[in-house]
C-alpha cells in the first residue's frame, strides 16, 4: 500500500496549473500610496469604458481555494431537487438525501429545548416579567436568561460586545472547560467566534506570511483547512492517516513529513489535528495525544486542535480528552506549548449550525501576539450574541436538580444513542458491499469508506474527465438522490478512492438509504466489472 | 489649505517601518507540498525545544493593520472603568461615556419590539401554537414568524442555510430593495453576511492580488477599509474629502489620485464610497452620485458602496439614494458597471449591532466571478440565521394596517428624531468652542470636528511621542470619562487634527457631555495657550 505516497492526482494537477500562473511581478510601490507629485495636473479621464473584472484578474488565491463539501455534487443535487419540485416523477427517487454535510437540523434533528428557550428569552427580554411566560418557559430557562442578561453590560443583547465576546459568558465557558479537563482555564484566553471556521481563518492569517510557511494537516482532512491555507497563501504540508489501523495518526509520519518539508525550505509553523476525526471519525488514544503534544513541543509547532466533535463519541472504549488537558497532565504549561482549541455549537448533540457560535481557547502565546489576535478580532467587532450565548449554554447545560435536567438529558441521550445506531447501521451496510471497506465511526458525524473501483469504472471516469470517486458519487446521486462527497475533496492516498457520508439522516430513513445504496452499488459493479 | 497633501504623518511613519521590514524572500516551493523523496528516512526529532511564535515571525500584514475604533483610547477607557468599579471616587467623573463607536444599544437605545418578537418566536417555534403566546406577542409578529419558518427548508432555524443565505429571506430583501429604489433587484445577487464587515473583507480578498492592486478610499475613512486592505496586502489609494465644503467628494480629486496611482504602477481596482459618510456624516447629492457612477464606469472600477447608514438621515433637504438606483436611472445595467452595495442591521434606527446581520448586493459581475464569491462564502458555510432573519425584517418592516405598525412607527420615529436632536446639540456645542469647527451631521451617527490645537499642545504631544489628536483625546478621557476616537485613526489632511464623536448617548446625557467637554476644552486651551 502506498501509504506515504503523494497527495492526490487532482491536487497535483491543481498545483501545476497554479505554478504556471504564478505571477513574478515585483513592486516597489508602497501600501498606502503617497500623494501625487505636485506637477501632476488633474489629467483627462480615459474615454474607453472597460469592465473591471475577469476571472483572470482576480486574486488567484481565491481561484485556487477548493471546498468540496459544497462543491459540484451538491450543486447537481440542488438542480435535481428543483427538477423534483417541478416534475415529481422525473427521477427514480422522490427526495434528495443530503449526506454531504454535518448539518443535523436540516435533516430533522430537533434543537435542545432548554437552549432555545434561553435564546428566545434573551432575544425578547421584555417578556421575562410577564405572567404568561411562566407557563410557556421552564423555570430554569427563565433564571438562566436573567443570569445571562445580568452578565451583559446594560443587558444590551443588541450591542457589539467586547471583541473576544461577553466577559460573563467567557467566564461560564472557562468554568465549563475546567470542569471538563480538571485544569484551570482563563476567560481571557477565550475568543468567541461565529462558528469555528472564522477562528481557523484567524489563526491561519496570523501564522502564514507566504508560501514558505507550511501547516501540517492530516490527509484526509476537513477542506476548511486546505481552503483557508490556500486563501492565506501558505503551503499545506500533508501527513497521512493510516487507514489500515483505523485512521491512525503516527508521529513517525509527522516527523518524516516535517523533515521533508524542512528540506525543501518550508518553515512549518503549526500542526492541525482533528479529534474526533473529520472525515475519518477516529478518536485518538490518550497515549497518541501525548506523543503529538511532545512532538509539537520539541519542534516548536503551534498545535491547532479541532475539537468540535468533542461530544460526539459512539464507542464505549474511547473518551474525548482535550489537548489542553493532555498537555497539562504532562506538566506542560503556557511556556512549553502554544495550543489553540477550536469548539463550535454546530456539532455535538446540539447541532446548532445556523447559530454560528463557537470559540477558540488560545494558550501559550505571548502577550504581544495575543494583542495581535485581539486586534484582528476587533476589526470584525464581535461574533453574534446569540451564538455567544449558545456557546456558554453548551459548555454549561442544565445540571441535576434543575427543572429542565430530565428533559434535557432525554433529548441529549436520545440524539447521541440514535447517532451511534445510525453510524453502526451504515458502517455494516457499507462493509457488506463488494469492494467497499469502511472503518468504524468512533466519533464525529461521518463514515469515510474506501471503494475499490474496477479498472473499467476508472477508465469511464477518465473518459468524462473526472476523478473516479466523483464519477461514482455523481452516479450514486443520479440513481438514488443520495448526496455524498468524493474523497478527493478531502485528500486520500493516490490510487485509493473514498467518499464521505454523514450519519445524520433520521433513523427512519436509514433502511431506505441502505437499500438504495446497496442496489446502486451492485448495479454499478456489474456495469463496470472487468 | 493642504487639501491634496499627503496622508497623515502616522500613516507615513507606519509605511517606513513597514518598508524596512519587507521580506524579499523568494521561494520556489509549492503550495501543497510534494511527498518526501523516497530516500528520506524518518529522521531524528530535534531535541531543542523552541517556542513557536514571536511578533517578529507572524504575518506582518496583521502587524500593519490598525483599527482605531477599538484602539489605545478605548483600552484606556476600559482600564478607567475597572478602576471606577473598584474605587468609585478615584476619578473626576462617575461613568465612562462611550462616544467612540456606533453601538446604540450599549448606550441604552431599546430594540424595536416587533423585530425582537419575531426573532424570539423563530428561536423557539415550539411556542407558536400555544395559547399563552397570543397574549405575549403581537399578531403580526406571530404571522411573520410563521411566514419566515415556511421560507426555511424544514423550518430548521438551526441548520446551515444556502451559502448566500435563505432563499426566501433573500426574496424579501430583494423586494425591499425594489421598493426602495424603484428598480428590479435579484435575490440571487444578495449575499447575506454576519454584518457588513465580512462582506467588505470578501470583496477585498477577491480584488487584491498584491501591493500592486489599489483601492481608492476616502480620507477620512472608516478604518475597516484600511484594516481590510492591509490584511489582504493591497494598497490604499487615498482621495480626500473636502472639509471646507461639508466633506464634499469631488470627482476631480478622484481623477487626480487615480492618475497619480497609475503613474506609480498601481492597478486601481475599486472605489470605496461611504454614503452617508463615516466618520464625516455628509449625505451625497444625487448629482454627485451620478458623477461617481460615471467615473467608475469610465475607469472600469468596481464601485464599493457602503450604504449601511441609509436610514440615518437628519436633514430635510437630503435624501438617501442607493448607487444602484442612481446607476439604473442613468440607464446603466449589469454590463456597464460592477457595483457592490453593503447593508447592515447594526445601523439605521434599529442599531442591532450584536446580531451581526447584513448583506451585500452584488451586480455587474460575470457568472464566473459570482461563482468565486459563492465559493468563498461557502467556505464559511453561511451567516447566522437570526442575523439573516433580522436583515429581512429591516428591509420589510410592518406596514400600515399591521397590528404593530403604530408602535413600530412610534419607536422608529422616536429614535430618529432624537438622534437628529442629539446631532444638532453636539454640533452646536462643538462649534461654540474656541478653535473647533464642526460640519453638520446630515446623516450616519458621527460628528468629526476639526480642532485647531495650539503649537504648545502639539509640542507637548511630541514630547510624549503621540499624535496631537491622540494627546487631546487622552486628556479628554482622563478628565471627563468621555471616549472619542482621534482623527488620525481615520486619516486626515496632514497638519489638521480631528476626533470622531458619536451622537449616540441618550438625550438625558447630552447636557452633561456638553458641559464636561466645554469645561475640559477651555482648560486645555488655557493650559496650552501660546
Automatic annotation (TrEMBL), chains A, B:
Domain of life of the native organism: Eukaryota
Aminotransferase class I/classII large domain span: 154-509
Cofactor: pyridoxal 5'-phosphate
InterPro entries (UniProt xref): ALAT1/2-like, Aminotransferase_I/II_large, PyrdxlP-dep_Trfase, PyrdxlP-dep_Trfase_major, PyrdxlP-dep_Trfase_small
Keyword Disulfide bond: no
Family recorded in the similarity comment: Belongs to the class-I pyridoxal-phosphate-dependent aminotransferase family. Alanine aminotransferase subfamily.
EC assignment: 2.6.1.2
Pathway note: Amino-acid degradation; L-alanine degradation via transaminase pathway; pyruvate from L-alanine: step 1/1; Photosynthesis; C4 acid pathway
Keywords, alphabetical: Aminotransferase, Pyridoxal phosphate, Transferase
Pfam families: Aminotran_1_2
PANTHER family: ALANINE AMINOTRANSFERASE (PTHR11751), ALANINE TRANSAMINASE (PTHR11751:SF29)
CDD domains named in the record: AAT_like
Gene that encodes the chain: LOC103499198
Protein name: alanine transaminase
Keyword Glycoprotein belongs to the record: no
GO biological process terms held by the UniProt record: L-alanine catabolic process
Amino acid at each position: 500500500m502506498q501509504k506515504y505516497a503523494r497527495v492526490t492526482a487532482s491536487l497535483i494537477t491543481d498545483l501545476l496549473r497554479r505554478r504556471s500562473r504564478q505571477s513574478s511581478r515585483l513592486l516597489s510601490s508602497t501600501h498606502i500610496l503617497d500623494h501625487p507629485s505636485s506637477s501632476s495636473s488633474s489629467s483627462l479621464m480615459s474615454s474607453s469604458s472597460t469592465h473591471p473584472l475577469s476571472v483572470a484578474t482576480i486574486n488567484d488565491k481565491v481561484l485556487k481555494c477548493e471546498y468540496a463539501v459544497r462543491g459540484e455534487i451538491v450543486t447537481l443535487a440542488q438542480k435535481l431537487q428543483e427538477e423534483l419540485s417541478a416534475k415529481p416523477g422525473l427521477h427514480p427517487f422522490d427526495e434528495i438525501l443530503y449526506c454531504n454535510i454535518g448539518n443535523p437540523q436540516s435533516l430533522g434533528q430537533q434543537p435542545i429545548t432548554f437552549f432555545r428557550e434561553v435564546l428566545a428569552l434573551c432575544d425578547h427580554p421584555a417578556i421575562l416579567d410577564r405572567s404568561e411566560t411562566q407557563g410557556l418557559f421552564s423555570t430554569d430557562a427563565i433564571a438562566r436568561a436573567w443570569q445571562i442578561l445580568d452578565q451583559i453590560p446594560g443587558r444590551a443583547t443588541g450591542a457589539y460586545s467586547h471583541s473576544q465576546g461577553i466577559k460573563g459568558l467567557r467566564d461560564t465557558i472557562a468554568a465549563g472547560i475546567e470542569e471538563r479537563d480538571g485544569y484551570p482555564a482563563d476567560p481571557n484566553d477565550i475568543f468567541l467566534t461565529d462558528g469555528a471556521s472564522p477562528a481557523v481563518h484567524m489563526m491561519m492569517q496570523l501564522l502564514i506570511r507566504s508560501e514558505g510557511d507550511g501547516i501540517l494537516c492530516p490527509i484526509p482532512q476537513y477542506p476548511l483547512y486546505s481552503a483557508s491555507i490556500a486563501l492565506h497563501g501558505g503551503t499545506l504540508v500533508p501527513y497521512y492517516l493510516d487507514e489500515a489501523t483505523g485512521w491512525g495518526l503516527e508521529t513517525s509520519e509527522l516527523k518524516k513529513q516535517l523533515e521533508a518539508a524542512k528540506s525543501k525550505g518550508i518553515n512549518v509553523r503549526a500542526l492541525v489535528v482533528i479529534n474526533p476525526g473529520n472525515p475519518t471519525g477516529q478518536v485518538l488514544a490518550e497515549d497518541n495525544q501525548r506523543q503529538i503534544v511532545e512532538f509539537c513541543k520539541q519542534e516548536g509547532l503551534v498545535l491547532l486542535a479541532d475539537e468540535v466533535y468533542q461530544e460526539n463519541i459512539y464507542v464505549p472504549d474511547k473518551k474525548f480528552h482535550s489537548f489542553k488537558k493532555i498537555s497539562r497532565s504532562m506538566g506542560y504549561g503556557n511556556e512549553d506549548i502554544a495550543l489553540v482549541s477550536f469548539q463550535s455549537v454546530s456539532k455535538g448533540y446540539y447541532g446548532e449550525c445556523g447559530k454560528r457560535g463557537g470559540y477558540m481557547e488560545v494558550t501559550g502565546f505571548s502577550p504581544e501576539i495575543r494583542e495581535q489576535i485581539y486586534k484582528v478580532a476587533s476589526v470584525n467587532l464581535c461574533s453574534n450574541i446569540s451564538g455567544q450565548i449558545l456557546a456558554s449554554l453548551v459548555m454549561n447545560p442544565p445540571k441535576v436538580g434543575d427543572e429542565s435536567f430530565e428533559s434535557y438529558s432525554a433529548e441529549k441521550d436520545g440524539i447521541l444513542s440514535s447517532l451511534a445506531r445510525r453510524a453502526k447501521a451504515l458502517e455494516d451496510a457499507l462493509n457488506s458491499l463488494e469492494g467497499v471497506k469502511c472503518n468504524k465511526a468512533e466519533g464525529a458525524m461521518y463514515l469515510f469508506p474506501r471503494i475499490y473501483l474496477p479498472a473499467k469504472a476508472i477508465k469511464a471516469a477518465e473518459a468524462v474527465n473526472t476523478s473516479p470517486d466523483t464519477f461514482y458519487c455523481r452516479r450514486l446521486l443520479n440513481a438514488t438522490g443520495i448526496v455524498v462527497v468524493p474523497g478527493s475533496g478531502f485528500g486520500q492516498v493516490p490510487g485509493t478512492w473514498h467518499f464521505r457520508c454523514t450519519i445524520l439522516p433520521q433513523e427512519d430513513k436509514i433502511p431506505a438509504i441502505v437499500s438504495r445504496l446497496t442496489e446502486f452499488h451492485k448495479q454499478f459493479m456489474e456495469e463496470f466489472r472487468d
